[in-house]
Specification:
By secondary structure, this protein is α+β, with helices and mostly antiparallel strands. The protein folds into two domains: 1-101, Phosphorylase Kinase, domain 1, CATH 3.30.200; 103-372, Aminoglycoside phosphotransferase (APH), C-terminal lobe (Aminoglycoside 3'-phosphotransferase, Chain: A, domain 2, Alpha-Beta Complex), CATH 3.90.1200. Helix content is 48%, strand content 14%. It has a five-stranded antiparallel sheet with strand order 1-2-3-5-4, sandwiched between helices. A hairpin with a 3-residue loop joins strand 1 and strand 2. The protein starts with 7 loop residues before the first helix and ends in a 5-residue tail after the last helix.
Length: 377
């Protein structure tokens, strides 16, 4: 993998931000490096037990042309932290951010697909979608994902790569498929399928992949982190992104090191089970809900809705969100494809076009679902 070593410069930035670190030297820290498509990350722990806080999460932003507004991202990160929905911010610039370190582990693939964990993500998304961040001055109509794709001219840039570069025989087969998807016609067709009502637009995480979901050691519960793509967007996109991205394991231990389980969230009933929990926590006061029962007991959920809501209206909105989610998966997978094609990703143990092949298959699967069940305006 492409790496950047943690150096004295990074430590100096931490020392400026945190008074408790002002006497810490490079020899007095333990650093665990991570990696992402858009960031270099480090868990930095002080060896001296008297240092407070004892550890931080340090993020160095990678330069992704046309894809990231780091000032906007930092403002959103701080706002989310103030709402108690994410780690605290110790300091941030356009080059890096110093975040609260929360002892945790990245959710495992099997762990994620247990109802107790996956449906807690539905609750987390509902909590985020309830928030009003109007004070940030964000435009609710200019949705984040559309701005990224069109503002970064991603369709044009991806087409240039696909039509001008030379590929090996294996990659060429995938590229030929992608040429049918990465077109202005397909993009315009996808935009026409997006929901038109304001109700469908909420404040979203926009990148709920496995790497951005941690299990907090203190509680055993999941938390969404890494809000660099957050903003007002389609709720179906946020929900659909989780369903699509939870299928993909990019660090599978065996060749070809990328594994896609197409059985996850493959049926409408699986998707409805998730959406019902999302809508339950979106509509109602969490203090009135028995969470443990709500996550696993369908009868409890139905009885709660009958008592506290209108079951017919509730189920009607579930179906509407389901249709929005079909299209949301498509939009998420289109963006994922364009990002991978246009980025210079070094050090992968497999061709990056394996990632785009998976995106193509998921995109086409949900395109068929969306065509068979169009949105009701």
């Amino acid at each position: 993998m492409d790496k950047k070593e943690f150096s004295q410069e990074e430590l100096d930035n931490i020392k400026k931000a945190l008074k408790g670190w002002e006497n810490v030297t490079l020899e007095q820290v333990q650093v665990t490096a991570g990696w992402g498509l858009c960031n270099y990350t480090y868990i930095v722990k002080a060896l001296d037990s008297q240092v407070s806080p004892p550890a931080v999460f340090y993020r160095v932003f990678r330069d992704i042309q046309g894809a990231k507004d780091r000032d906007r991202e930092n403002k959103i990160f701080k706002a989310i932290a103030e709402k108690g929905l994410g780690p605290q911010c110790h300091g941030a610039t356009l080059e890096y951010r110093i975040e609260e370190y929360i002892p945790s582990h990245v959710v495992g693939v099997k762990e994620l697909h247990t109802p107790q964990i996956s449906r807690q993500i539905a609750k987390w998304q509902a909590g985020l979608h309830k928030q009003n961040f109007d004070f940030l001055g964000l435009d609710k109509k200019a949705t984040k994902m559309l701005n990224l794709i069109e503002g970064g001219d991603f369709i044009k840039r991806a087409k240039e790569v696909l039509h001008t570069m030379e590929f090996n025989e294996e990659d060429q087969k995938v590229v030929d498929l992608l040429k049918t998807k990465v077109t202005e016609e397909e993009w315009n067709s996808l935009k026409e399928m997006l929901p038109k009502g304001e109700k469908a637009i909420r404040f979203c995480h926009n990148d709920p992949n496995i790497g951005n979901i941690i299990i907090v050691e203190a509680t055993g519960k999941p938390m969404l982190v890494d809000y660099e793509n957050a903003g007002y967007d389609y709720r179906g996109l946020d929900i659909g992104a989780f369903m699509a991205l939870s299928r993909v394991n990019l660090v599978h231990p065996e060749p070809p090191y990328i594994h896609v389980d197409y059985s996850k969230f493959s049926t409408d009933e699986d998707m409805r089970g998730y959406i019902r929990r999302y809508l339950l926590f979106f509509r109602h006061d969490w203090n009135t809900i028995d969470e443990e029962k709500a996550f696993v007991d369908d009868e409890y959920l139905k009885e709660y809705i009958i008592k506290n809501d209108n079951l017919e209206d509730f189920e009607e909105e579930v179906e509407q969100i389901l249709r929005e989610t079909y299209v949301g998966v498509m939009l998420n997978q289109m963006f994922a494809t364009l990002m991978v094609i246009t980025m210079d990703i070094k050090g992968l143990p497999y061709s990056k076009y394996l990632m785009t092949e998976a995106s193509y298959k998921i995109y086409m699967e949900f395109k068929e679902k969306a065509k068979a069940s169009p949105l009701r305006e």
